[in-house]
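Class, study these two lines:
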Amino acid sequence: MSPCIPLRQRLSSAVSMRARCRAVLRTLLPALALLAVGADAAANTLTQNVSWTIDRAGTTAKYRVVAYGDSIYAGYNGSTINAAKYAAPTVDAEYLSALWNADIESVRRAKSGAVASDVYNNKIVAEKSYMQASTTRVVTFEMCGNDGLQARSAFKSQTGTCNYAGMNAAVNNCKTYVAAAMDFINANAYAGTKVKVISNLHYPGYAADNVQSSCKDAGTGATVNMQTLFLPKLATMNYWMCEYARQKGFQCADSFAQYMGADYDSNGDGKVDSEALRYVAGESEASYVTRISTTLRSTLRDANTHFVTASSSYDYIQSDNTHPTYSGGTVTAGLFGGSTGSGAPRYTSFTNGKNPIWNQFGHERMGWAISTSNPAAP
């Protein structure tokens, strides 16, 4: 600044500049704070919205898949600025594009780290307009994973006498908001919507949870095996996701069975493990929970090693031991907003309704599971 400018003017200009700098800092500090604390912490409040259209050659019709959820549908990959392009809902869009010979827009309205109430209130309800568009043909959602993860983390930090209230609250909150979400979608989705799907929960960190707690059970005075404690709670959540789906006109993509069971018969009961673990329409909660947590527990495997044959496996979980693996690159989604784009399908035909990598990545497997409910025509 020139020394010839009057002192009062120089002081005023300096004050103005400091004010502008403070305004810029107020804008940047939340983003810088997220970056500073790392990707895992940032995921707790990270909105990751993406719209990606499968642009199929020679087509003119265009339909929409709308997906609401947390970091799973977001395609979270540890980054605060991008996410998987082909998260499960977009994988389903690719299947639909081939089935209907049409362009399919995959709209993902997701918030990494959101508990069920947050997904319901701030995504499904607050952003209902996305499923009300006249092009909507599929509405899908997933939730409750963070309710369980937060309750598990809190329990692991306990000492003294074990308190199970947090885990029970997570189960109850999941039941409440899953039912509410289905009712709201039924009342608000475009009337021409052909199918509504919920994806239930895989068990991230299954093998790591096979350890004793730091707290002790009030009745036995002994520590508890955390895998033994958490598995029935997760199974209860999954049961009600699929059971409410049956009651309320939704389909249930049983991602737990697809992730946690091998694609061959490992126990000689005559059933492929991933099929034997699936929810059976009409069964009781007690029957399902017993089947998952006791009867077939020996067939459960950590999804870091998903066996497709007795001698071949793929890793369905990223290095964070929580989020599904994926193929197909990334798109902008995070601190700097979502993205909208389009591209040709990776695959143009599917043998027996499956793409060549359907069982090699977590998101591919979940997307295929969602796709099994797709109607033959839009």
Remarks:
- The chain has a mean pLDDT of 90.
- Residues 99 and 293 are 37 Å apart (CA to CA).
- The two ends are 66 Å apart (CA to CA).
- Residues 46-371 form a domain with the Rossmann fold fold (CATH 3.40.50.1110).
